[in-house]
Design the sequence.
């Protein structure tokens, strides 16, 4: 994530940077031509990261209840279906049935207090 200014028509505003406080997440939709794809921003130790909300075990959404992705300690993203644990900052699965695989990163940047996201190459 970088702080820059300027406008890029391929970017969408997905959150206000200050609304995603440390240890919280916020879901958003990526506008793909066929159908929107759900993703989320996570603030992990003060840094924002964004991931497609799709487990790498079975392609299902991962939140336990609406917009809840992190475990109790706030240290890992945990898939609600079979418990795969992902690092919030690298997206790598470090335990569970998707071990060794990684979530799809959504490129984001912050400009003028807004979080801007782009469609990941993997989904284009
Ligand atoms: S679908 Fe996520 S761990 Fe199985």
Sequence:
């Amino acid at each position: 994530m970088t702080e820059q200014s300027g406008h890029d028509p391929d970017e969408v505003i997905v959150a206000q940077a200050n609304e995603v406080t440390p240890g919280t997440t916020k879901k958003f939709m990526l506008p793909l031509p066929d159908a929107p794809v759900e993703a989320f921003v996570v603030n992990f130790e003060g840094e924002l990261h964004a991931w497609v909300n799709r487990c790498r075990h079975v392609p299902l959404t991962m939140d336990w209840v609406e917009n809840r992705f992190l475990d109790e300690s706030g240290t890992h993203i945990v898939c609600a279906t079979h418990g795969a644990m992902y690092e919030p900052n690298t997206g790598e699965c470090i335990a569970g049935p998707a071990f060794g695989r990684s979530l799809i990163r959504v490129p984001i940047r912050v400009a003028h207090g807004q979080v801007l996201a782009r469609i990941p190459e993997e989904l284009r």
